[in-house]
Automatic annotation (TrEMBL):
This is GTP cyclohydrolase-2. GO terms for cellular component: cytosol. SUPFAM superfamilies: RibA-like, YbiA-like. Belongs to the GTP cyclohydrolase II family. Binds 1 zinc ion per subunit. It comes from Thalassomonas actiniarum. Signal peptide: none annotated. The active site is at D276 (proton acceptor), R278 (nucleophile). Catalyzes the conversion of GTP to 2,5-diamino-6-ribosylamino-4(3H)-pyrimidinone 5'-phosphate (DARP), formate and pyrophosphate. Residues 7-144 form the NADAR domain. Residues 157-319 form the GTP cyclohydrolase II domain. Gene3D superfamilies: GTP cyclohydrolase II (3.40.50.10990), YbiA-like (1.10.357.40).
């Protein structure tokens, strides 16, 4: 059925759902190689048996050992086995955010362990089994959707994005309440113990796609992607917040007011908007998916620095991204510096050369 997701072997496409999949976890101070190790060990109260199963080389071995010690199984097992399974499945997804994002991405699909060997945890192979593991996975999915960092954005899918500078992985996300879509572009591999070069870039159709020289957005976008490739790894978060959050058509209205002499802040305010309506809290969802908690941030905008710090991201360095200054956007950039606090210098000597990126202030 189209609305059903079947899983069984851990090597399959959706094998991460299996208790045999190799995702270690810690519960009550003890490390378990897989969910299966934990589940099988907790059938017993004898510590030597628990330890033997816990140290089993593979989940298949853990399963086999529990069968060998079946005569020692705790008497109340039938009454607690479902809660034990719920505990370990919940912990698996709590401790592995990438798996949680993937589970949420299954949407409202009916999840079934398609096992011909098990009609209690699985569907029995004929679809008639009780499928308690699938039901627990759906319960966990429902709970995760309401929790941080997942509730703001839901992961959808990943695909390759070839660019003139290199091939990025394009990860799609959607805001569940508004339906607004956002992207994360990742390049290369980074070590877990090193900060990731990153830019947060808000959508600017006129600058990014139509080559407008009224702003510096398109120039910054291209330079950021180039810098990430040159660095060997990094991430760009592309947020659908056109016109600093006022939308494309209102942005055109603001441009018309700027044509009459208003600056970019005055134009927004004359239309009844704040100077900047963008939000960044949902970046927490994207960064948890990518496994990032330390960054070198390419930005001139102090609001982005504050926003990331607020969600617990450690900014070890701010990298200045000053690109695309020209005679059409000189007043615009001056306004961003004077009224919005952007941390760059705009030349006042008549020079409109494009500046190369340089590493900036330690934060």
């Amino acid at each position: 059925m189209d609305n059903e997701l079947w899983f069984y072997e851990p090597e399959d496409r959706d094998g991460y759902l299996s208790n045999f999949a190799s995702y270690p976890l810690y519960i009550d101070g003890s490390k378990w190689q897989t969910s299966e190790h934990y589940y099988q060990a907790h059938k017993f109260t004898e510590q030597s048996v628990i330890t033997e199963i816990q140290q089993a080389p593979t989940p298949d071995d853990a399963f086999r050992l529990s069968r060998e010690h079946q005569s020692q199984m705790r008497q109340d097992w039938d009454s607690i086995k479902r809660q034990t399974m719920f505990t370990v499945v919940s912990e698996k997804f709590r401790q592995h955010p990438l798996l949680a994002h993937k589970l949420i991405a299954t949407g409202n699909c009916i999840i079934k362990e398609h096992s011909h060997k098990d009609a209690y945890w699985g569907d029995g192979g004929d679809g008639k089994g009780e499928n308690h593991l699938g039901k627990i996975l759906m319960e966990v999915r429902s709970l995760l959707k309401k929790q941080l960092p997942y509730k703001f954005l839901h992961y959808v899918e990943t695909a390759k994005l070839p660019t003139p500078w290199g091939t990025f992985a394009m990860h799609g996300f959607v805001e569940p309440e508004s339906g607004k879509e956002h992207l994360a572009l990742s390049y290369g591999q980074w070590r877990k113990d090193e900060p990731v070069l990153m830019r947060i870039h808000s959508e600017c159709l006129t600058g990014d796609a139509l080559f407008s020289m009224r702003c510096d957005c398109g120039f910054q976008l291209q330079k950021a992607l180039q810098n990430i490739v040159k660095n060997g790894s990094g991430v760009l978060l592309y947020l659908r917040q056109e016109g600093r959050g006022i939308g494309l058509l209102n942005k055109i209205r603001a441009y018309q007011l700027q044509d009459q002499g208003a600056d970019t802040v005055e134009a927004n305010e004359q239309l009844g908007f704040a100077a900047d309506l963008r939000k960044y809290h949902f970046c927490e969802s994207m960064l948890s998916f990518l496994g990032i908690n330390e960054v070198k941030l390419m930005t001139n905008n102090p609001r982005k620095v504050k926003a990331l710090k607020k969600i617990g991201i450690n900014i070890v360095e701010r990298v200045i991204l000053q690109e695309g200054h020209n005679r059409h956007n000189h007043f615009y950039l001056s306004t961003k510096a004077d009224k919005l606090g952007h941390m760059f210098e705009v030349p006042n000597n008549g020079s409109f050369s494009i500046h190369e990126i340089k590493k900036g202030h330690e934060l």
